[in-house]
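ARCHIVE RECORD
Type: protein–small molecule complex
Small molecule: 3-methyl-2-oxobutanoic acid
Source of inputs: curated submission
Record status: active
Notes field left blank by submitter.
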Amino acid sequence: MSTFTIDTRTSRATPSPVPGKRMTAPSIRARKVKGKTEEPIVMLTAYTMRTAQLLDPHCDMLLVGDSLGQVIYGLPSTIPVTLDMMCAHGAAVVRGSWHALVAVDMPFGSYEGSPEQAFASASRIMKETGCAAVKLEGGEAMAPTVDFLTHRGIPVIGHVGLTPQAVNVLGGYGARGKEKQEAAKIIADAKAIDDAGAFCIVLEGVMEAIADDVASGVGAPVIGIGASARCDGQVLVTEDMLGLFERTPRFVKRYDDLASRIGEAARTYAEEVRARSFPTADQTYRPKS
Ligand code: KIV
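STRUCTURE (tokenized, with ligand):
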């Protein structure tokens, strides 16, 4: 059961201290006109309220990615991620944002069975989180599902190229489309979900030439991750670009080195506790003199 009410003016779960109008699926879709996107679309992942608050002013979209399986829960892949996890984190991100469109990933096993199964899962995600869109992986095989959802009030972001939920079929997380046949399949996948009504498409881990063909071949904006600058926008996993992990994929640019900074702060704290130099009078409750 949801624990909040939605402010219908801002689409925010609790009224924003800075009322504003949230980005919508149509407003994102409209950013691409006659095959061109004037200003690239900015998307980052968020899984918590506070991170959402910090990212929201800078982003057009926040993605509650199922990458939270690895990033938050230490799971080996996105396969074990559940609808319960996505709903809990999705609601937190909606509560922490007021400007960006929040999209929530549909986890593995929650939508592939049939369009009806996808509708049941997606409608639960939207009711429990207040998000404005869902994302699902897959191309031609998922086109009827994308069509089913979009005709029933659920905006859908597609995801083609490297699709991490299919890791067991793909055999790893390497870039896709190195061979002609696979490149053609990725382009056909993107066209199929574009025709089915996806309002934008995440294109992950592909050769630049494929990104070129996809971005120029579909009407919906293409949001790249490891897919070159040819796309209509970019998305990264926030923890990757903040440098929270020792290893990051080649396509990630590190904008900070938070792992070192957090480690350094924890080391200083531990030293001060052991030396009894924290807490000082400044951090201590005493009667006022
Ligand atoms: O789960 C996720 O974070 C994603 C992005 C990498 C696009 O799908």
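CURATOR ANNOTATION: Residues 69 and 75 are 5 Å apart (CA to CA).
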